Amino acid sequence: MPVLEFSLGSTAADKADTPCVVAGVFDVAFSPAAAAIDAASGGALTRLRESGDFTGKPGTTLLLHGLANVASPRVLLVGLGARQDFDARMFERACDEVGKALKGMPVASAGVWLPELDVKDRDANWRVRTCALAIDHTCFRYTATLRTPNGGAPRLSKLDLMVDADARRGLDEARALARGVAFARELGCLPPNLCTPTHIAAQARTIADEHTGSVTLEVLEREDMQKLGMGALLAVSSGSATPPKLIVLEYKGAGDARPYALVGKGVTFDTGGMNLKPTGSMEEMKYDMCGAAGVLGTFLSAVELKLPINLVCVVPSVENMPDGAGYRPSDVLQTHAGITVEVLNTDAEGRLILCDALSWTCKRFQPQAVVDAATLTGACVIALGAHASGLFSADDALADQLLAAGNQSLDRAWRLPLWDDYRNQLESAFADIANIGGKSAGAVTAALFLSRFTEGTRWAHLDVAGTAWMPGRKGYATGRPVPLLTQWLIDRSM
Ligand code: BES
Ligand code: MN
Ligand code: ZN
Fold it and tell me: What global pTM score does this model have?
């Protein structure tokens, strides 16, 4: 998974030896870099503004060639809008536009002067990191199963981030996060005939092998899970020809402190099982392991940053298939926690693999907090769309930490209720709990189901069904919630 190379610089924009200078333009003012280019070139940018050819409107870019007295052969201008409105999101948006423009240009590297801009409440580290990650994100190309990458081989490989402050921390975070996000995206995009539970375990192995000494891997097999009484996880897997895995990565960066735990839904393909999904929505269910990809990517970023914490990452991974050996609606399952579950819909499988993984993680590791990420419900997509992940927690302090991490990384979440009032929707006549809660508040009842298996542990749930991947034939996995979760762990390391 190649990511862009990043470095820091602080040359004057008109004098820099780079194939392309990237400079921002506000609607009524130039950024410092644009002002330097304008002055060196005898007012070239002023004339463009006066003619109306480039006015600094947000979302616009303009590529200029061969400006007089400018060392670089190319200047890419990007509109920043009104200076008084220029906030963190506008900054990120401008970086996205730059990425889209650079992606198609015949340059191997570029010098980007956006991190020198003032952004309300954000420091130079943040500006460097956000700029690097945004451009890297737009330049991502899935390659694993293509003879030639779509759009040809990418040319851009290096970014120089120009800033007049010490931003080495931002650079380190950008490098670590770019790797974690790319890992999650590549794994999320991989088709389900290749991305099996066995493959995800092999990917976890590569993380462990790259960090021997601080990281250990354990993979529980079907027999191990049988011994542990994980009847819910195993039932979901029972219709599949590919074996289930419970993947456990441990990172030690803080002696014997209690660990933080991340748990990710790793359904490598969700047909719905006996409650088969209709045509038109099934092929997207290759993305149903994006929670797993997200926690593994976060784990990779945290380890690369050598954060002074202990961390465990647990991924229950299965395929949900209809089969003669498959589980049925009305089956009653015995979970690892001892709670019995009536299956009223085999398509509500995510909570069934997560409940066993969560209760086992709480018992085995006694984590100081556990956060799970899962493409859990279509209802969450209806509620929040593609912009916010659904956040659920009974612990206000933990919820606030995660919301803050989302705002800081711009990988945002929105809190939804986890009130007892919804609990009777999960009542069953034949088991301690049913696996679905009826038509209303589907994202809430799914989260409430999980809450029953984490009692006694600080726990939060992120429903990333709408945020972890983009719908449509050319949609990719997004790498979310890697930025949010990594930021949360960075904040815990302070
Ligand atoms: N993986 C799906 C949730 C999903 C749906 C993710 C759409 C992304 C986009 C999950 O396993 C599922 O099928 N959930 C059902 C639950 C229902 C049967 C209670 C749903 O949301 O329809
Ligand atoms: Mn399902
Ligand atoms: Zn699913």
Answer: 0.98
